[in-house]
């Protein structure tokens, strides 16, 4: 399954809203009806942080300014008001079809 | 507290082998599929392999099929990745992670593997 993540770079100002797109070449809806799409943030020199699973469910401790949406093969991660600790590279992951595939990443950086 | 701790990384010559381990604690290991993810220097995240609860099913990316073997020991709450016939393109930091509906709920700190002569 090909996962296309855009944009590759997203310059923002603090307080801006940011939006990242992730599109898959196949439906990510499992036979059980659940859609398996996740989002991660990796800050420089750190291991990945899990933000959202199953399209729109935030992991414990993730601020509510992060929201995931979408269905079938078209998904979006929104950050309502970018804060300094949100800067880094964001990845989406489809985990319904093996081989699992990550998007190429979106670097969220300051203008 | 959920913890995943990788070990076994290092510098290895092309064509040689290396075995990574991941020790899990703070959760019921046998209740989770587990996965290895890698990241080459300055590159993105790349899924490598996954294993089912009891080890009965395994899945690999094409580039490591036939060379890497994922396994687990539920009695020891441990995950392994046996890497044979290593190539320079296998140079990466390898992370173990939990695989469930909430994929990536826990990540190890990573084990660095460098394949070079």
Overview of the structural elements:
- The complex is a heterodimer of chains A (111) and B (117).
- Chain A is built from no helices and 11 strands.
- With 111 residues, chain A is mainly β.
- In chain A, strands 2, 4, 5, 6, 9, 10 and 11 form a 7-stranded mixed sheet that branches. In chain A, strands 1-3-8-7 form a 4-stranded antiparallel sheet, with no helix packed on it.
- In chain A, a hairpin with a 6-residue loop joins strand 4 and strand 5 (49-53).
- Chain A is globular and about 40 Å long.
- Chain A starts with a strand and ends with a strand.
- Chain B is globular.
- With 117 residues, chain B is mainly beta.
- Chain B has no helices and 10 strands.
- In chain B, 0% of the residues lie in helices and 50% in strands.
- The interface between A and B is medium-sized, with 24 and 22 residues.
Order of helices and strands of chain A: EEEEEEEEEEE
**Sheet having the most strands of chain B:** 6 strands, mixed
Query: Count the strands of chain B?
Result: 10
Strand tally of chain A: 11
A few lines on this structure:
Chain A has 111 residues and is mostly beta strands.
